[in-house]
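pasting for ref. prot 1 ->
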Amino acid sequence: MKIKLANTDEVIEVYENETLYRILKRVYKNDYFKYLGAKVNNKLKGLCSKDFKENDRIEFIDITNPDGHRIYVRTLSLIYVKACKDIYNDIDVSINHSLNKGLYTELQYKHLVTKKHLDAIKNKMQEIIDAKKNITTYFLSVDKAREIFSAQGMMDKVEMLKFWNKDTIRVYELDGYYDTFYGYVAPNTGFVNKFDLRLFYPGIILNYPTREYNFELPEYIEQKKLSKVFKEAEDWGEILDVAYVGALNKKIVNNEIYDMIRINEALHEKKIAYIADEITNDKNIKIVLIAGPSSSGKTTLAQRLSIQLRVNGKKTYAVSLDDYFVDRHLTPKNEKGEYDFETIKALDLDLFNEQLIDLMAGEEVQIPVYNFKEGSREYTREPVRLTNDHIIIIEGIHGLNDELTANIPQVNKFKIYISALTQLNIDRHNRISTSDLRLLRRIVRDYTHRGNNAIKTMELWDNVIKGTEKYIFPYQENADAIFNSALVYELCVLKKYAEPIIMEIDEDSCFYSERQRLLKFLSYFLPIEDESAIPNTSILREFIGESCFR
């Protein structure tokens, strides 16, 4: 049988029942371990797969591919959990969320985790990696999987399987230890050779290579403020009694979800009111800057914060950064020679700062309107004059970067970072990525409000992520307040909107593997059909529709 190898653009002969792993080792010999998975006609496959046929196009993927990178991180996570259990027997390990350029994890151990424990785990991980131990893939019946996980004390997985809608589930086995992961892992432990562990009380940070550091281990940057927000999210999860998807699905089945929706929305409102009180109590604050990644809910937060400030006796005035773009021919260009509208240099910072100072001083100011069709500013608005009780609210990608408001004294500014920091995970070892949640929000919003299909959204998403990493994430810790816009129930609502949009992607698309990944992810959630409990002020309404702020 012949297949086309996309990596080298050559046709090669393969044997009947030969796995992708064997083909990989035969073709790439000593360099085979660089590749973590494969795409067969745009469909992502694990290396243990034999699921291909004559004339299929096969592309082996490495860590530079997003799917390859996910396989790397999952494999490393499996090794980490196995090492912890080898050393401390029945210890429970939780992989909670991304933090400090890695994964924040916690060990349910009788003693405080120390550097001694950390070194022991690290050495054990390296031992497992150096041994190149096989990771075997099984497709087990749900009953058999439930039996195994129950015996291993993994009741979070047992609960999740109660709502599994297929007859079998893919389970990985490493040296007698069984686990499930949301996606593929490498066929043996030798494929992941770069990692590090750091103490971060009360847990451990598992670091791995990242794209922004050319897939080397990143510089360790401690995110203390972000860590506190994740802790707050965990506390909210306890209040709502939903740490994992199984518990959330159970609330839907038991018709307890609507009370939980009301509590979750109340927690949001309470947090926004607290931030408004903090701003109001500081008489020096004249400007509020809101920044966050795409689809984090900036627009709704700005509107709800404005209402809470008005409740406190303040007046608010919104200023859009879009109106301060330089004329198009003056816009900086990126390395591809294209206009870079994401860079802060695309804004007329001098004019922006000058007008902010005038507004704060009570001067009459004519705010420009940017004509995107013509690529230039126009002055068609009536002049505006603000009073001493006014708070200027600005939302935009560069809000946390002090260069944006370089001429405004720090004492007059209050900076808010907003992101969807999920407090819910699939189970102890499978976290829900914040970028996945935002992507699903954007897919739904782009389709519902902007007429874009899923492919169009995905085409733009990589640049969105790069812009976030470049212009937003480095300034997170500059924030005076961080608002977590994630709602624990929202994926159960987004599911019924997102699934039909994503299913429109056909097998010929380069985004077909992403289609399959997102549909697999959404399959863990039961849908919430009745949306009447979701208020029209909810951040979720910004994406699914019927928001009172649109």
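and prot 2 ->
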Amino acid sequence: MPKVTYTDEVDARFGIPWTEDLKYDKGELVCALSEEEIDRLTIEDPERAETLTRLLMDQPGSEKEDPIQWGWTLPGWRRIMERFNKDKIHVIMGGNRSSKTYFATRMLVHLAQAIPEAEIRSMHVSEERSISDSQRYVWENLPARYKRSKKKSANHSLQYNQKNGFNAGKAILPPTDPSAERGSTIYFNNYRQYMADPQIFEGWAAHVIHADEEIPEAIFSSLLARLTDFKGRLILTFTTLQGWTPLINSLLKGAETVRTRYSELLQRELPVEQISTNWPDCRIHYFWTQDSPFVDGQELVRTYSKQPLETKLARLYGIPSKSFEGRFPKFTRETNVVEHERIPFIADPSINATRYFICDPGGSKPWVAIWVGVMEDGRMYIYREFPDSTMGPWALPHVNGAGKSVGKPGPGQKPLGWGYIDYKTHFEDLEGGEDIFERIVDPRMGSATVRTKEGESNIINTMSNLGFVFRAAPGVDIEAGIAKINDALSWDDTEPMTEKNTPKLFVSDRCENTITSMIEYSGQSRTEHFKDFIDCIRYLMVSGPEHITNAKLAVSGGGSY
């Protein structure tokens, strides 16, 4: 009996690195170089030329015999291979037909051969999708010698047909280790099985699990527990068509981007590799459709080139951009979130911006506040928030029993026990003496009567007496305020962003609670937990924020501060 092999002990590398010297033409691998380039390559780099010649002659036939050993591996694949043993969770979010599923399937088959008696799980949305996608890909990537051998014996079984997939929903490969009693097993499961009976995912262990298409949040933690025995790995592959779902939010919120790449189509840097901050040992990889040699990626790029930005991000780059039910469809991290140090008046303090402070006082909850700088060209930057991420998320995604996306309180809502002086002192400490043109407050809470030692008062009067002067925001209908926010986010995202074609509202990447609220706010309930930061932005918008020059300030007499 072979000793137990742990997944992190195995070399995850397979195949032949892709070279731009070659390309696919109608399914046939051909040289991508001109005759002149080949002649020059032969003289300048004979080793590379020899390799190219050998691959052209040997690879096509060899790949049919053994797709794993002799198939091409793309640069994005190689990056995952190099990190496969270092990270427990690999999330691959790719554009349409970007090779994400193809790579994951080849990794499963590779590990099934490299690990004696490996326990492997391949999962999809339904049994039908498992048969048509997952099982078909596994069959196509098995070495031809396995398919030619006896399909069933005491230690392996590879009975497959296109209609029903693998017999009994599993493929048992021939043993690769002489001491093994059986070959490695690939089991095929689906999410519907779990939703019908969660116990079906208990009591087994796996070296690697591949879940194709977005996995329900309830299954995610269950699968991680199945990897403990073998120090296993979880591979998630999907195209993010529904935006920032609860699972996506959990994986990506606050993620650290470690590799970017410039998109000519979108004319901006996009993330290629990220590290999750919420899940240890989790790395996120983005596959671009245009990089796949297995499809006409350029044709797909042309197909989606005039679609809205969120569609292009999801369909071509695998990048989620908005909540499925969000009220601000134009707001995306890629467009509206700015590195704090790149905000113009932060990067260059000499640049004049008119600064506003907007506050939504809470009852038992902490007060919520944002700081906004308005530029001369009308662009607005939310550059500070309270509570910020150091106090924990203000709210978390959650769907209530009525099916409404209302969120739930996060640790940022924990009561502080502060009084008026505490808030005034803290806010002024955060500002560090910066010039605040105007302070705006929730008109309802700001004017509500409260009892003090001196008698009845309200927040506006009490804070004014402390030297912290508020102006009540206009009592405008909520929907009117939402419309003004969407106006500030509006731009033609089918065309490149320019000085004229640009949204007016941006958020510092340090303001994570504001960002999450913009993405998640659904407006489905007046008690929605993402509402507080949105209220602050509404109060700003209905108050008519503008850039105030020194000359104008002298005429008007200045703001309320």
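The two ends are 79 Å apart (CA to CA).
Residues 344 and 351 are 7 Å apart (CA to CA).
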